[in-house]
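job 3f2a | input accepted
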Amino acid sequence: MSDLLHLEVSPLGDRSISRSISKEFLDAFKSKHPGAVIVTRDLDLEAIPHLDGETINAGYTPEIDRSPSAHAKHNFRISLVNEVNEAKNILISTPMWNFTVPSVLKAWIDQIIVPGATKVSGPVTIIISQGGSYAEGAPRAGWDWQTGYLKQVFTSLGATDIEIILSEFGLAGVVPAMADFVEHKSASIAAAKKAAQVRAAA
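job 3f2a | predicted structure (202 res):
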């Protein structure tokens, strides 16, 4: 049983916006819950295998009939499911890549969705850093296939308390064409960090 299951996704380390926001959440959470048991999975350092046929078929094969390889893959998948089921809170911080979730996060999602086995009962906080803006009125409004997808994933697993904390314009100051949005970027990150602190302390 863990007080918090924490997934990090970005490969940018100290330069990652999503990681900098999740740090604010973690600091506030630890202050609110001294001695909390936190399980961290850094998907950049330890990627989750993508589902393959052997893993899928293992779930429909009696244990005695599974090959050693299928047995190992199935047990690993169930260990991920158990981490989710046993977590009192879940925190995910991720960038947006190509309008959706990075493949390493999708691999984890595919592994943990096991009908009848996975159940999320505690709060879920999803921190997302986007390079631009996909809000209503923006040139690329409607191109965000990440926030709604992640909310739907956890809703399907039983979560009723889901909060998405979003920062925008992450590429401002990096991409010359977005130079006019540097102040918007700073304001968005600051607001996201504050929201993360408030959420963690709730």
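job 3f2a | The chain has one domain: 4-201.
job 3f2a | closed
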